[in-house]
Specification:
Two copies of one chain form a homodimer. Chain A contains four helices and six strands; from the N terminus they run ααβααβββββ. By secondary structure, chain A is of the alpha+beta class. In chain A, helix 1 crosses helix 2. Chains A and B meet through strand 2, strand 5 and strand 6 of A and strand 2, strand 5 and strand 6 of B.
DNA sequence: ATCTTTTTGCAACAAAGTTGCATGCTAGTT
DNA sequence: AACTAGCATGCAACTTTGTTGCAAAAAGAT
């Protein structure tokens, strides 16, 4: 794990620091999505709020994580698959948000279906979020 | 228009007040989505910030408007079609966000395709957001 | 070990959203 | 048309969330 974390950071030309390692570790452990707030809570007093913001921002730019749109006001982040290159996300799986426990789960096996758009629209990215009850909450 | 606004409010058992009329009018005029900030700007000094929040909240609950997921931190609202009943949104069209001009457009003719979920998941709502370039920005 | 560059924490700030309560308005009744 | 109960609004104060500049600290290269 330790080694994996280092490798991801190195591969993206990021210096290996405490906060980056810790936050990346959180993502690797939870195989779902995390909100900024979750991360702040889980890192506890260890890092400044600002550092968390900046780390997430950096990870986003490098394509290590991607943001997931939700219909309430929260923004979620999740690890990208390996084929996410800098700036270009090919993160085309469906995300599931449980309306009971609030967890977000990446349905890695469910691909986002492509839809036909009206003439004139040039699509770059498709995102799909399903809300409902997860396995554990039914 | 005036009559239409009154009817919508009455149909939802809401008392007809200045702010509700004005905000509903804004939605009817702009046939796209509006952010809270947009509404605040357009209503100018006329209504309190809190009133705008509460009005949007009420409209959401009544199913007059729905919220649209975006990948940045903003929340957008748009009018529901007539078949949105209280609490239950059947707002199953795709939303398009232009990465250049930032506008969000409801693609009312493009329905969200249903996907097969892994066993155990109980879906309640499907949402799909396409990012890209709109007609005007290509 | 030393130097340069990047990252962090702090402080101060700006923006976004919430809550309680007194006042004003709406809609229904007389 | 006037009255009233109940809902909606505005205000103030507050919390939460996100941003910026800058000095101190840590990382990576030599």
């Amino acid at each position: 794990m330790e080694a994996q974390i280092d490798e991801i950071l190195r591969k993206n030309q990021l210096s290996v620091t405490g906060s980056r390692k810790r936050i990346l570790e959180l993502f690797l452990m939870s195989n779902g999505a995390l909100a900024h707030g979750d991360i702040e809570k889980k890192t506890g007093e260890k890092f400044d709020r600002v550092t968390v913001y900046r780390t997430l921002q950096t990870f986003l730019e490098k394509g290590i994580i991607h943001s997931i749109p939700t219909s309430d006001n929260s923004v979620l982040y999740a690890l990208c698959k390996d084929d996410c290159s800098e700036g270009h996300h090919h993160d085309n799986h469906v995300h599931f948000i449980c309306s009971d426990c609030g967890k977000t789960i990446c349905l890695a096996d469910v691909t986002v279906p492509q839809v036909k758009l009206p003439v004139g629209f040039l699509p770059q990215e498709y995102q799909m979020v399903v809300t409902g009850l997860c396995k554990d909450c039914r």
